[in-house]
Amino acid sequence: MRHTRTIVAARSTCLFALVAVGCSGIFGCSGTGSRVGAERAYPQTAVQGESLDIQVVRGETTLTLTNTTSRVFGPCTLWVNAYYSRPLEGLAVGQSLTLPLKDFRNEHGESFRGGGFFATKKPERMVLAQIEHDGTMYPLVVTRGEPVIK
Predict the structure, then answer these.
(1) I need a surface site. Which of 44, 59, 94, 138 has the fewest CB within 10 A?
(2) d(Cα 100, Cα 64) in Å, to the nearest integer?
(3) Can you give the residue ranges of every domain in the chain?
(4) How far apart are CA 77 and CA 123, in angstroms?
(5) Residues 105-117, buried b or exposed e (16+ Cβ, 10 A)?
(6) Angstrom distance (rounded) from CA 141 to CA 97
């Protein structure tokens, strides 16, 4: 009888573990989506380029940038506050992008605190935005660093 209880308990534990692992795969518990593996430290040794006329505006939970230069950027990385980054497929002349601030991650996988109605922590200010392209960091024009509250 005692041996039967041990077997039943072991089967229940194994079943629970399998269900938990299966659910994490189905529901995607990682929380980082396609950003897995893209997190990295700020490149301190990158060459500093000239400031570009790419305007960056911080909304409540988004960041909008517009390329008003005559330069096309291929695959690059957008950095916020020299700590959070997000890869970009490219940025064409005259192109505008609106990106969720939660997509910007630091080297530890933590997201930028953008704020919003359901935010549990104070939103972070955006004081610096840069594009990393071909080993060079280009500062951008940040027009509003505070979160927009409507």
Answers:
(1) 44
(2) 9
(3) 2-30, 37-144
(4) 22
(5) bbeeeebbbbbee
(6) 15
Supply the DSSP symbol for 112: P
CB 43 within 8 A of CB 24: no
Q: Look up residue 138 and give its two tokens.
A: 């280009």
List the structure tokens of 121: 């922590």
- Give counts: helices (H), strands (E), the chain: 1, 9
Give residue 121's pLDDT. Answer: 65
Q: What is the pLDDT of residues 24-39, one digit of tens each?
A: 444 444 333 344 446 8
- How many angstroms separate the CA atoms of 77 and 22, rounded? 34
CATH 2.60.40 fits 37-144, yes or no: yes
70 is written with which tokens?
């005559």
Rg (CA), the chain: 22
The amino acid at 49: G
Residue 59 — very low, low, confident or very high, per pLDDT cuts 50/70/90? Answer: confident
* Residue in this structure with the two tokens 């919003």, named with its chain if needed: 116
**pTM, rounded to two decimals:** 0.69
3-state secondary structure of 108: coil
